[in-house]
Design brief:
- It is built from nine helices and seven strands.
- The radius of gyration is 17 Å and the shape is globular.
- The protein has a single domain (4-239), classed as NAD(P)-binding Rossmann-like Domain (Rossmann fold, 3-Layer(aba) Sandwich).
- Strand 2, helix 2 (43-55) and strand 3 form a beta-alpha-beta unit.
- It has a seven-stranded parallel β-sheet with strand order 3-2-1-4-5-6-7, with helices on both faces.
- The protein is 47% helix and 14% strand.
- By secondary structure, it is of the alpha/beta class.
- Bound molecules: NADPH dihydro-nicotinamide-adenine-dinucleotide phosphate.
- NADPH dihydro-nicotinamide-adenine-dinucleotide phosphate binds next to helix 1 and helix 7.
Length: 251
């Protein structure tokens, strides 16, 4: 699928070093977008990713250094990027972490870390970019939530809370900024084969497989396809929506 309006569109994707974020950048590169991604500090890896996305067709590739929990670095490095390149008009809040544990074992620091990384950082980043969105065209934000944020899951109380929070933020932002024609939507992947899910116990993986009506795990490309649609004008009348990419896991 070619979305002509994504050509040269400047799109920031967080957490693009691997997994779903990397697949989204690859898909954007194929649409000839200006791919912007953040990296935490590994210059060599960032340069390899830049070359990789450029080789896939990106009109331009930029790497901006910041840890999403380091708000000062995030804001100043993004401000410098916008000053040099003009406004960002697409944003994918994808970076995230998970730590499965029964609620009796959850430490306050785990709660802080997961909520900060999965939810607070996305809100701080989006709110910060909102002023410069006023100078951009066709603003579209995609927030990576999870089916777990909709249905809950054993041993994922904190993760589920962070992902449910993402949906509340997505809908509220959509309402608040609709008068500016900014759109904000959430994607809820089910079980997608990445490093995040690789670490799960075999028993848990088998249970997922049994519970997925379409009978297979999802791929990172499945999530990237929906994300591209939401970033493009093909979805111009869709905002505040939550789209599951889960093979029917949560019907
Ligand atoms: P991965 O673990 O494969 O990748 C996570 C990405 O987030 C990495 O690029 C990582 O960067 C980045 N990241 C984590 N913490 C930070 C931080 N503090 N600052 C900057 N970057 C950070 O995850 P997935 O690709 O599987 O998941 C991507 C998103 O999709 C997450 O939000 C996840 O919750 C969600 N999701 C995934 C599902 C799945 O089945 N895989 C299901 C539902 C939702 P680095 O390389 O520097 O660590």
């Amino acid at each position: 699928m070619i979305y002509n309006d994504l050509e040269n569109k400047t799109v920031l994707v967080t957490g693009a070093s691997r997994g779903i974020g990397k697949a989204i950048c690859e898909a954007l590169a194929k649409q000839k977008a200006h791919v912007v991604f953040n990296y935490r500090g590994d210059e060599q890896k960032a340069n390899e990713l830049k070359e990789h996305f450029a080789s896939m067709g990106a009109s331009k590739v930029s790497a901006v250094q910041f840890d999403i929990n380091d708000y000062d670095a995030m804001k100043s490095n993004l401000d410098a990027f916008v000053k040099e390149n003009g406004p960002i008009s697409g944003l994918v809040n994808n970076a995230g972490i998970s730590k499965d544990q029964l609620c009796l074992r959850v430490k306050p620091d785990d709660i802080q870390n997961i909520l900060d990384t999965n939810l607070k950082s996305a809100m701080v980043l989006t709110n910060h970019l909102t002023r410069q969105f006023l100078k951009a065209k066709d603003v579209s934000i995609v927030n990576m939530s999870s089916v777990v944020g909709l249905m809950g899951n054993t041993a994922q109380t904190v993760y589920a809370a962070s992902k449910a929070g993402m949906i509340g933020y997505t809908k509220s932002y959509a309402k608040e900024l609709a008068s500016r024609k900014f759109r904000s939507n959430a994607v809820c992947p089910g079980f997608i084969a990445t490093e995040m899910t690789e670490g799960l116990e075999e028993k848990a993986k088998e249970a997922y497989m049994q519970a997925i009506p379409l009978g297979d795990y999802g791929s990172t490309e499945d999530v990237a396809n929906v994300t591209l649609f939401l970033l493009s004008n093909a979805s111009k009348y869709i905002t505040g929506e939550t789209i599951k990419v889960d093979g029917g896991l949560y019907i």
